[in-house]
Amino acid sequence: MAADDTIPAFSVVSGAAVERALHGRRRELIDLVEHAYRLHGQGDTVNPPSYFLRFPDRPSARIIALPASVGGDVAVDGIKWISSFPTNLALGIPRASALLILNDARTGVPFACLEGSIISAVRTAASAAVAARALVAGRDTPRRVGYIGAGLIARYIHAYLSELDWKVEQYAVHDLDAGYATSFAERVLGGGADVRVHDSAAALIRDSDVVVLATTAATPHLHDPALFAHHPLVLHVSLRDLGEDVVLGAANIVDDVEHVLKANTSVHLTEQRTGHRDFIDGTLYDVLTGAVTVPADRPVIFSPFGLGVLDLVVGATVHRHATDHGDVTTVDGFFHELSRHGAAR
Ligand SMILES: NC(=O)c1ccc[n+]([C@@H]2O[C@H](COP(=O)([O-])OP(=O)(O)OC[C@H]3O[C@@H](n4cnc5c(N)ncnc54)[C@H](O)[C@@H]3O)[C@@H](O)[C@H]2O)c1
Q1: Is there a contact between 145 and 212 (Cβ–Cβ < 8 Å)?
Q2: What CA–CA distances, in Å, run from 211 to 47, 63, 105, 134, 228?
Q3: What whole-number distance in Å separates Cα of residue 263 and Cα of residue 53?
Q4: Environment class of 62 (CB within 10 Å of its CB; exposed 0-12, middle 13-18, buried 19+)
Q5: Is the dihedral angle over the CA atoms 23, 318, 70, 262 positive or is it negative?
Q6: pLDDT for position 118
Q7: 199 close to ligand 1 (CB < 6 Angstrom)
Q8: Which residue of 67, 99, 268, 329 has the smallest Cβ count within 10 Å?
Q9: What's the CA angle centered on 235, arms 91 and 276, to 5 degrees?
């Protein structure tokens, strides 16, 4: 086979094309992300630790590399390279920006570069929805949903939780910045249901059956287990909000035990304090497969570190869809050295 038949075409997929490829497919994407968790649980993935690039002169910033490989019917390798610069909010632009590179599983050749921040937000939101769907089984259907941290991730999570056929009667929001909370209440939660803006996280928690934590808190700020005495489901997407006593008072479900017990997440801090990890009840895969059942008479906390395999699974479907619809920019001749010994003289 000629080299140029073997090398896949290289294409770039813009954010607008990513958005078009994902439009109207939330339920399908929730199922797809559940499929990714199942492949991960079955050992059909490789998901090494993320690498955190940090900067002494910009301590709040980081860029994370998430290399991963997905087998099974997905069969793609790749890497997400995602920046988090919280100071961007003051510039009026999003905190996070990202690229996703897909590599061909047969040759290793990178065949696509996709705008990654929308894919990252979608996989995060879909993963929260997969967990919420599985973890409310055996409980009353949630009627009151509250968001602490009113940013882009909370907006995406709200869109995906709205696919779960819950009969939500009341939404609530709290943010350290009251302006963000009000804007979120009006622009994201507005319409139909009762919408409340709380000036304290504690009041919101007491008033919610499902609590979504999507802040940028670097260290725990919710320490009192009594706030959770009504046994809510807590989607702890931002990972560092809950004090150790809150973690110890709950059933804890994670996406991947080795991953989430790193980088000073609340569960990592709890492991450091107690010297063990017995407070982790299991993974989402364990819940999906029935190996672990979560109690209805305790708070349940889902702490997802965020697996690169989820980005790959969503990225691969975006790339396929965009390619099928002629919505990619192909870069002809991107890989130039295609013969080991050069052209014949
Ligand atoms: N686990 C995962 O897979 C995953 C994936 C993507 C993002 N995240 C995390 O989700 C979080 C939210 O991301 P985003 O893009 O929406 O950020 P964002 O900056 O757009 O919004 C975060 C909001 O949280 C608010 N906030 C900060 N500290 C708070 C506190 N103590 N109490 C209440 N509000 C507070 C900020 O004012 C801001 O409005 C980040 O921590 C990010 O790292 C997790």
Answers
A1: yes
A2: 28, 28, 39, 15, 10
A3: 12
A4: middle
A5: negative
A6: 97
A7: no
A8: 329
A9: 110
Quick one: pLDDT at residue 342?
Answer: 82
Question: What's the maximum distance between 2 C-alpha atoms anywhere in the chain?
Answer: 79
Q: Position 226: which residue type?
A: A
pLDDT computed for residue 338 by the predictor: 83
Q: In what order do the strands lie in the sheet with 280-283?
A: 194-197, 170-174, 144-148, 210-213, 233-236, 300-303, 251-254, 280-283
Task: Note whether 12 and 285 are within 8 A (CB).
Answer: no
- 8 A C-beta contact, residue 111 and residue 10: yes
The predicted structure's pLDDT at residue 6: 82
User: Residues 45-54: pLDDT tens digits?
Assistant: 999 999 999 9
Ligand 1 mean position, distance from CA 98 (Å) = 16
Adjacent-strand bridge partners of 110:
103
Which phi and psi angles does 183 have, rounded to 5°?
-60, -40
User: Residue 151 Cα, ligand 1 centroid: separation in angstroms?
Assistant: 6
Q: How far is CA 16 from CA 89, 179, 237, in A?
A: 21, 28, 26
CA dihedral 328, 18, 118, 306 (to 10 degrees): -80
Determine the Cα angle at 121 with ends 119 and 125, to 5°: 115
Lookup: tokens for 85:
């610069």
Give the three-state DSSP class for 218: coil
What is the CA(241)–ligand 1 centre distance, in A? 10
> Rounded to an integer, what distance in angstroms lies between the CA atom of residue 135 and that of residue 132?
5
Distances in whole angstroms, Cα of residue 110 to Cα of each of 79, 116, 265, 334: 10, 15, 32, 10
Ligand 1 atom having least distance to the Cα of 240: 41
Q: What is the pTM of this model?
A: 0.96
Instruction: Name residues whose C-beta falls within 8 Å of residue 238's C-beta, 6 or more positions apart in sequence.
Output: 149, 153, 213, 214, 215, 216, 217
87: burial class by Cβ within 10 Å (0-12, 13-18, 19+)? exposed
